[in-house]
Amino acid sequence: MKNKTRETWKKMKNNHEMDRRITRMAKAQPMISSRMIKDSLELPVSTVTVRRRLCEANLFSRNPRKVPLLKKRHVQKRLQFAKEHINWPKEKWRNILWTDESKIVLFGSKGHRQFVRRPPNSEFKPQYTVNTVKPGGASIMIWVCFSYYAVGPVYRIPWISLHMSKYLKRSCCLLLKRTCP
């Protein structure tokens, strides 16, 4: 009886060590797959067991958030804008027209599917996100606007390759429903 208890204890101790190794590797490399963890640690368990252990450690497999690839100067400009406008009253913010454009890929693959293992409420930490850049290929461009008072319509922009100043001029003409020269 003592032998069996001792073996069970050794097995449990090995499982705890294995669990720590699995968790440590997933935290160090959040984009790594359970198959790669199993293979690189040479574990004597299945990939399903590895996934189960990761879930028990609150490291569920999720799609990483896509965030724009920002350079240091972009971050500095955003911070500067936030600091300059932190004390604006609500009435002033209500006079702002917010705009955005988006490029939608029509054909082709957007790439392979990627997963990340991360703790809860950490989806925007840089180590758990994927940087994106504007895609190429067949696509359409849309432009939208909104303010405190209303949401504007969605416009399809057929002139993607125009210079930025012409693009802005035409966008404003669309918004004001005027014909552009």
Summed up:
This is Transposable element Tcb1 transposase Transposable element Barney transposase. The protein is an alpha+beta fold and 181 residues long. The chain has helices spanning 2-28, 34-41, 47-56, 72-84, 90-93, 164-176; strands at 60-62, 65-68, 98-105, 116-118, 129-132, 139-146, 155-157.
Textual characterization of the structure:
The protein folds into two domains: 60 residues; 112 residues, no CATH class. The strands form three sheets. Strands 3-6-7 form a three-stranded antiparallel β-sheet, covered by helices on one side. A two-stranded antiparallel ribbon has the order 1-4. By secondary structure, it is α+β, with helices and mostly antiparallel strands. Helix 2 crosses helix 3. The chain has six helices and seven strands. The model has no long low-confidence stretch (mean pLDDT 78). The chain is elongated and about 65 Å long. It starts with a helix and ends in a 5-residue tail after the last helix. GO terms for molecular function: DNA binding. This is Transposable element Tcb1 transposase Transposable element Barney transposase. It comes from Channa argus (Northern snakehead).
